[in-house]
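#lab-general

N.A. 3:47 PM
ok so I finally got the sequence cleaned up, no stray characters, all 272 residues accounted for. can someone with queue access submit it? mine expired

B.Y. 3:52 PM
send it over

N.A. 3:53 PM
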Amino acid sequence: MRVNGLLALALAVTSCAAPPPSPPPPPPHQRLDFAVSTSATAARSPSRHFRAQVLESVRTDRSDARGLELVGDVLMENTGQAIRAVTPSTGDVRARRDVPPGIGIALSPAGLWQAGAGSVTLRDPGTLAPRLQTALPEVSWGLCDDGTHLVQSNGTTTLLLRDRDTAALIRSVRLDTRVWSTARLGELHCTTVNGRPEVWASVTGTDWLVRADLTAATVTAVADLTAVTVAEQPTGADQVIGGIAAAGATDQLWITGRHYHHRYRIRLQPQP
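B.Y. 4:20 PM
back already:
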């Protein structure tokens, strides 16, 4: 990314819009009842159950994190009404630019996509200047690029696959989540498992992430984030996971939440 271009940005962050309605959360630390696929595809993964280990915590200004993406050596964070470049190790804000309210941010070869209220905007990764804007009828709860599609969550167990260059809807994928069919998937992080694109999704109102194979439409792994939510206590009703991003190592992620006091670098430790 062109950091010099980003450092030239000096627009102030304005107040954040009210978050979209969230479902009543289940009891704290409720055991996850998602059915994890035991298909041949899922079996190739070395583990299907993970637990977060907190490696580092970085103080935040408690902004309303609504999307997180590692771009070069900075974290790009959507705060609902601004996109800003943040130094991962210190939390220092290196640049910011006001944007229309929305949830979700994703880097693709075409540029940096930012979901807004009723539209999605493609921006230059260096200057954040808009390149393209198109209508987005579905409410966005998360956004990521899986190497083939732009993947969008909408607060259900259905994920929307969009063209990486135009954001045009290609198809939808309803995940087989069995007894948690009413779960609301939020923030997304695209990854690769054994050469196949998969996506981590936060389960709104819980301490869990699920990993889904979009080709098979199945949940292939789950991750318990209790270590993060316990470290962040006390939290409010709107303090849900609002940012998931790569942290360099393949088993590590940056995790933050809406109005969280800290941004956490975690390792996903395989469990029996």
